[in-house]
Each structure stands twice: as structure tokens, then as C-alpha cells.
Amino acid sequence: MSGEYDPEVFSWHVLSGRSAAGCLMSEIRCRALTRPTKDTNKSDYRKRIMSTDTSDGAGQAVGWQPGEHGMVTSEGLRYHIVASGRGPVVVLVAGFPQTCYAWRRVAPLLAAEFTVLAVDLPGQGDSDKPVDGYDTRTTARRLHGLLRTLGHERFVYVGHDIGAWVGYALAHDFPDALRGVALIDGNIPGVTLQPTITLGPDNWRSFHFLFNAVRDLPEALLADRERILIEWFLQGKTASVRQTFSRADIDEYERAYRMPGGLRGMLGYYRAVLEDIEIHAELNTRLIEVPVLALGADFGSAPDLYERLRPLGKDVRGGVIADSGHYIPEERPDAVADHLRQFIATLPLGRS
After folding, report:
1. Structural domains of the chain ordered from first start
2. Do residues 67 and 46 lie in contact, with contact meaning Cβ atoms separated by under 8 Å?
3. Do residues 20 and 57 touch, judged by C-beta distance below 8 A?
4. Among the residues of the chain, which ranges form H helices?
5. DSSP letter at 105?
6. What is the pLDDT of residues 114-136, one digit of tens each?
7. Nearest to residue 190, comparing CAs of 216, 217, 209?
8. Comparing C-alpha atoms, which of 259, 337, 329 is closest to residue 300?
């Protein structure tokens, strides 16, 4: 299969009409990954795949990044993963109101040098939506278990927004599994997130920490209105929304949040914020042992992330990405990829 990228609409068009997603630079196949058995080499899970097809009837891809798409079961939960490239493992995790689709522009830039795994968190995108366990410590444990299921002993973790919250707990609780961790424009509860919201002109930036945490009401008000919520956040927190998001992009996020449990799953992370604050209060008493890359954006939600994290780790690097709002992986993918390459080049390789 071959494909081409249309810069006008930022969507993937399948030329052959045979399978699910186009690839920017090479042919790819859409795959479903199966859980390894005791008799299977876990690390070579690409040998254990079965074909799937998620293209629409007209032969246009449903809006996924290039790579191998699949579902992997770990500790009772099924995870949606998009895998591409070969080399040392880099794990990409997005936040709200997004899915692993947020990495569709960064992943191809890294795939020439790394095995890139874009993962939907529990409750996010096409992964399972558990009823509980959305605090950062439980989520970090689950992700660590997923990577062990895939046979990866060490990896670089990259988290944006809620992905950064999870990365903070992961760096403390599983340092031996990490070569390094990159945290991107996330206001981490109990760490960089302010404990109170002050009335003023910038209330809109943080109101969702209150609204999303209310039980049941957000689901009732947002049912069949998910697109309004998504467009509102993207419009308000992107430096140049028309240059960043197409209708097809928003369609994909809307699809994910309209799925059964889609809203409940991602709201679960906000409903666990008070628990996260308690967890992180304990973690804050210990310095992060692994190297940290902390990146904010000049028009982002956490432009001071690097400065705030510097006292909390033994080796914290980073800064501010210019000309970007909160959604840095989609607004400035080249800059994100460049920072990650430079960061990873300094890390001990170890086993992955």
C-alpha cells in the first residue's frame, strides 16, 4: 500500500484502497498485536500480528498516524498501540482531549531511529475504559506492566498533558525501567498545578479541573456535544488553530470521545486529581533519579514547567518551545522531535 499526505486537510489518503492507513514515507500495514504466550519471544512481537482493516468504504483512511495498529492485553486491560520504526524504544502518551492520534506528526520523525509506541492510556481512545484506577500511580503501574508484556525492559517515556502527570509518577516509581522521561506542557497535580483557581480573566484555562471532576454532570451535558468541547479547547489553547487542526483531525477526536465510556474514561483522570496531589506530595520528598526533559510552550499551559521541575530531579533539562500553544506535538512536531533526539542521544542505551 502507498499513501500521500495532503497538507490542506492534514489527513491520510490511501491510494490503493486496500488497507487502513497511509504512510508518509513507506508502505505500512495495519496490525492487531496479540498478547505473547509463554512460548513466544515477547520482544519480537511484530512477528505475532494479524491483519485488520479500518479504512472507510471510499478508500480513505480513518485518520490514523502511520504505523502498525493493534490491541495488546496486559494485566486484564486491552491497550490500543500504534507502533512504527526500529531501534531503542520511545513511548508516547497524550492527554485531554486527545488520544495517541496526537503523535501522528512526531512519530514519523522519530521512526527512522527508534521503535516508537504511541499508546492510548486506559480510558483514552481505543483502549479499555476501566471503572477506576485513574490516579497517576496506578496508571504508571499499568503502563509499566504493558511495556513488560511487550518485552521492553527499558525505554524513554514521553508524556504530554495528562501523559506528563503519569510520567512524573512513572519516573519515581519505576526508574530502573526508564532511560529518561520527557514531560511536555503539563500542569502536574501537587507539583506544578496551582492548588486554587483565582477568579480572573484566565479562569478559562483551568476551569475544567473543577468541571471535569464533578460526578455524572459532565457526561450528561456533553453527550452528543463532544465536538463542541474539543473544538473549544483546541481553539483556545492553540497558537494557530487553523494551521494545526483540520476537520479530519477533529473528527478523529470526536469519534474517540463518542465511544461508550470515552468521556467517562478521560474524566476519570480529573476525578483522581485530589488523590494525585496526595501521591505526589509523597513523591516530592524524593528527587527524580532518571534524566528529565521538561518542555513548555510560550503560549502553552505550563511555560514555566522546566523552572518548576528543576529542583525536583537530579538531572532536569529543558526550556520553552517558541510559537506554540499547549498542543506542542501537533503545533511544533519538528521542534519536539529535535529536542527528543538531542535528549535521547545523551542517555545510556541499556536494554530495551
Report:
1. 68-345 (3.40.50.1820)
2. no
3. no
4. 107-110, 136-149, 162-173, 208-211, 217-222, 226-237, 241-244, 247-258, 262-271, 273-283, 305-309, 328-331, 333-345
5. T
6. 999 999 999 999 999 999 999 99
7. 209
8. 329
